[in-house]
Amino acid sequence: MAEYSFALSEEQRLIQESARKFADNEIWPAAPAFDRSGDFPRDLILKAYELGFVNQLIPEALGGAGLSNLDTALVVEELASGCAGITTSCVANDLALIPIVIAGSDEQKKRFVKDIIAARKFASFCLSEPGAGSDVAGLSCKLEKVDGGYKLNGAKQWITNGGVADQYTVFCTMDKELRHKGICCVVVPADAEGVSHGPHEDKLGQRASNTTTVNFDNVFVPESSRIGKEGEGFVIAMETLDITRPLTGVIAVGIARRALECALSYACQRKQFGKAIAEFQGIQFILADAATEIDAARLLTLRAAWMRDNGINNSLQSSMAKRFAADTAMKVTTDAVQVYGGYGYTKDYPVEKLMRDAKLLQIYEGTSQIQRVVIARELVKAAAAKES
Ligand code: CAA
Predict the structure, then answer these.
(1) For the chain, what is the mean pLDDT?
(2) Which domains occur in the chain, in start order?
(3) 125 C-beta closer than 6 A to ligand 1
(4) What's the CA-to-centroid distance between 134 and ligand 1, angstroms?
(5) Helices (H) and strands (E) in the chain, counts
(6) What's the CA-to-centroid distance between 235 and ligand 1, angstroms?
(7) Which residues are known to be catalytic?
(8) Whose C-alpha lies nearest to ligand 1, atom 4?
(9) Alpha-carbon distance 267 to 349, whole Å?
(10) Does the CB atom of residue 234 touch ligand 1 within 6 A?
(11) Which residues of 51-79 are buried (b: 16+ CB within 10 A; e: fewer)?
């Protein structure tokens, strides 16, 4: 019989505890002001940088925290319980640097990862475009061969940290007709000639995470800045998302956990019909379902992260975890607003922000519908392999 162990090691508990303290003492109190202003919380994120809560998955030899996927997931849940937007901006650096760690040469890892981290700089992952969100293979950003390298032209959209990044990891195509086989991955400094970004998007939620368009107008890219071979960009992007989707899943778990904590505390204090509303079964069932679904979401995300740590392909489990956790966060936060009633619908209480923040989890890093596409394809592939 398979043996399961769910116990965290002493070291994992300590990492989790320090992330929880940072989230409770620094992120949670600061989050409402950043939510209102939409400003980028640079000082707070630089503090997270110093504490090792940015670049967590990047190896220590390159200046990162060198945490496992599982340990990173434990930390990210805690950070997200403080503010999902701030956490998204922290995790964005990992997302942008992982393609270089996966497929870059030693020289590229030094130039684009180690030097960036040593200088406490930010990097952005540029995949989505105005006309290509879910359909990555249909992207249009054009990479043309010229003497000594390439010319890059096109626009990227919904880029996390787009307006504050010092470096962009850009997915672009040498021939759109080739679909995924034409895609390349290149690294472009933000101050290269022809690079610009649009204004910060005025978003519904996760307002502390900086989101902009990024434009490339005849930008020269030396051949030495291409990551992997020509045409390998699509697979590099997908492998990166396999790693980061469980982290998006735990951002959802962090939001949902905070919403349940708020709803529980409110339900115990709020009295109607002469008793605390937590004593009514109608409220109890909401809280019971939320607690159960949050636990299920956490276990799915931790399993996907653990599989990656153990060299097991986790495309299926990453998508299951991300889909279920995102949908759970949306449901639990909406229910938390319901428990608060009219008060929950105002900005005087924290649950409306959690609900707005949760919505993005069903959209970025692949929508809940795209996750279902990946899950179904993996199931069919496995069944077909069994048949043959
Ligand atoms: N690992 C390795 N290889 C993979 C792979 C993976 N996870 N997934 C696909 N591939 C390979 C396939 O095996 C296939 O290889 P062959 O050439 O040998 O056939 C090739 O890549 C093409 O795969 P598909 O046929 O599955 O490609 P597709 O065009 O049908 O698209 C998709 C697949 C899953 C829909 C993909 O386009 C996708 O994930 N879309 C969602 C995009 C997304 O998540 N965007 C997030 C943007 S980043 C963001 O939001 C971050 C932020 O800033 C917050």
Answers:
(1) 97
(2) 10-118 (1.10.540.10), 123-233 (2.40.110.10), 234-387 (1.20.140.10)
(3) yes
(4) 9
(5) 12, 10
(6) 7
(7) 365
(8) 235
(9) 13
(10) yes
(11) ebbbbbbbeeebbbbbbbbbbbbbbbbbb
- Distance (Å) of CA 94 to CA 24, 65, 88, 281: 23, 11, 10, 43
Helix (H) or strand (E) holding 187: strand 183-189
Report the amino acid identity of residue 91: V
Give the E-state strand segments of 122-173 in sequence order.
123-126, 142-146, 149-160, 167-173
**45 Cβ contact list (under 8 Å, min separation 6):** 54, 86, 89, 90
Q: How far is the CA of 234 from the centre of ligand 1 (A)?
A: 7
Residue 303 contacts residue 293 (beta carbons within 8 Å): no
Tell me the per-residue pLDDT of 296-326, one tens digit each, with 9 for 90 and over.
999 999 999 999 999 999 999 999 999 999 9
Token pair, residue 71, equals: 């340990």
- Give the model's pLDDT for residue 3: 61
Round to whole Å and give the CA distance between 159 and 246.
19
For the Cβ of 373 lying below 6 angstroms from any atom of ligand 1, the answer is yes
Task: Tell which one of 161, 168, 234 to mutate to probe ligand 1, the residue whose CB is within 8 A of the most ligand atoms.
Answer: 234
Query: Which residue in this structure is represented by tokens 């970025």?
Result: 364
Asked if pLDDT for residue 379 goes beyond 70, the answer is yes
Return the residue whose CA atom lies nearest to atom 1 of ligand 1: 239
Secondary structure of the chain: what % helix, strand, coil (to 5)?
60, 15, 25
In our burial notation (b when 16+ CB lie closer than 10 A, e otherwise), range 256-265 reads bbbbbebbbe
DSSP structure class, residue 366? S
Read off the pLDDT of residues 220-270 as tens digits, 9 standing for 90 and up: 999 999 999 999 999 999 999 999 999 999 999 999 999 999 999 999 999
CA nearest ligand 1 atom 6, residue: 238
DSSP 182: G
Residue-by-residue DSSP string for 280-296: SHHHHHHHHHHHHHHHH
Take atom 34 of ligand 1 and give the residue whose Cα is closest.
374
**3-class DSSP state for residue 39?**
coil
Q: Is 252 in the pocket of ligand 1 (CB under 6 A)?
A: no
Q: Which two tokens stand for residue 152?
A: 């890059």
